[in-house]
Specification:
12 helices, binds (3S)-3-methyl-2-oxopentanoic acid, Rossmann fold, 391 residues, 2 domains, signal, alpha/beta, 41% helix
Length: 391
């Protein structure tokens, strides 16, 4: 566990001001979390505790490490503004479901956090969000893109573009740009996100009238794809549409290119990572992906974010960092709206955020937790994500 923003003395004070539990198991309203003033002038004396479960080790660390940095940057910036002090309590789920469940329990029961952010994978969220919901803790997903996430309960929100929305833009955009008529599809049929994304990909291809000439599956831990790729090669497909996490994507794409399969590859959310592009090197050229953020978006906020991130961590930001950064600002906005950091107030105000300016562009959250934002469609050119529509 890492704690930031307050020292040990303050943390000790926090323990004595534990909230009162009601018979439902949810926390009663705590007057010390109600401040004075509103918006930018809101002042709350009590420290507001934000818990985050991220995958800092294991298969999803490619995203989790950026999320940690985006989140810490946002919390540092927010703590420099006057009025509200945030304590970020971070737990690593190591890309493991049981660890994710116990990490979430720690944040809910030991730390009694006021809001939560994460986890990195939808696969974990389907289990851990039930606990957050039962505890009545508003929770904001940052990369949980599978269908059905906000439906888990009224306390569950996300600032992560749903994969089905990204694909509804990226697959037609890729088709318009690449003019494919036949497609091969491949997906990891064990993971919640890759399975959900695959269903959306399949639907989009059918809607476009694209003929699916090969359809292959593999388990999450697979690293040897030559047998499936041979079938895809023989199918003569114009494009490969792939739903996989990076652990599989990297060897899969490398093996395809080594076998001389040079058709464009269209992917899902895991492709939105410079780690992936760095690992694939030349094999990543012409990968097409729809995502929630672009380094090229030239809003004042995004320019400031990309510069601060580079300065703080000596590497460029990515989408996962941008979404984590957005989640902290979104929770801050919801607290300031009624100057109240009680869980129910945060939940109500999150559901009222409309056209809130973020580094992802303007976002709106519905009362039932879903985000509306415009997707960005990108293609890898010369090792960099470039906006496809800008070509
Ligand atoms: C999900 C995802 C992953 C690719 C995030 C890292 O989108 O699990 O929903």
């Amino acid at each position: 566990m890492r704690r930031t923003a307050v020292g040990l003395a303050a943390a000790a004070t926090l323990m004595t001001s534990a909230c009162v539990q009601s018979s439902s198991g949810k926390a009663e309203e705590d007057d010390t979390l109600i401040g004075t003033g509103t918006g930018a002038n809101c002042t709350i004396d009590e420290v507001v505790k934000i818990g985050a479960v991220l995958s800092l080790d294991g298969g999803a660390a490619f995203a989790g490490s950026y999320q940690q940095q985006g989140l810490e940057l946002a919390i540092d910036e927010l703590n420099q503004k006057s009025g509200i002090t945030y304590e970020l309590i971070l737990e690593d789920d190591k890309t493991d479901l049981q660890t994710s469940i116990s990490a979430t329990e720690k944040l809910l029961e030991r730390d009694e956090v006021h809001a939560m952010i994460g986890p990195t994978l939808s696969n974990m969220a389907f289990s851990t969000y039930e606990d957050a919901q039962d505890a009545g803790v508003p929770t904001v997903g940052i990369s949980t893109t599978a269908a059905g996430i906000p439906e888990i309960g009224e306390y569950i929100f996300r600032v992560s573009l749903p994969e089905e929305v990204a694909l509804a833009s990226s697959i037609p955009a890729a088709e318009a740009s690449l003019e494919f008529e036949t497609a091969a599809v491949m997906h990891d049929n064990e993971d919640e996100f890759t399975t959900s994304a695959f269903e959306s990909m399949h639907q989009e291809l059918q809607d476009l009238g694209t003929e699916i000439v090969a359809n292959e599956t593999f388990p999450t831990s697979e690293t040897e794809f030559r047998a499936q790729l041979t079938k895809i090669d023989e199918s003569g497909a114009d494009v490969l549409v792939l739903s996989a996490l990076p652990g599989a994507t990297i060897p899969l794409v490398k093996q395809a290119r080594e076998m001389g399969i040079d058709i464009p590859i269209v992917g899902g959310n895991a492709f939105n990572s410079p780690v992936m592009i760095g690992n694939l090197e030349d094999a990543s050229e012409n990968l097409v992906v729809g995502g929630a953020w672009s380094a090229e978006a030239d809003t004042e906020g995004n320019i400031a974010f990309t510069e601060s991130f580079q300065d703080a961590y000596d590497r460029p930001a990515d989408q996962f960092a941008a979404q984590a950064y957005t989640a902290a600002y979104t929770i801050d906005e919801a607290i300031r709206a009624s100057c109240n950091a009680n869980r129910d107030s945060i939940r109500t105000e999150l559901g009222r955020l409309s056209d809130f300016e973020t580094v992802l562009g303007p976002i709106t959250l519905s009362p039932d937790g879903e985000i509306t934002q415009d997707p960005y469609i990108q293609i890898v050119k010369d090792g960099e994500f470039t906006l496809l529509n800008a070509e």
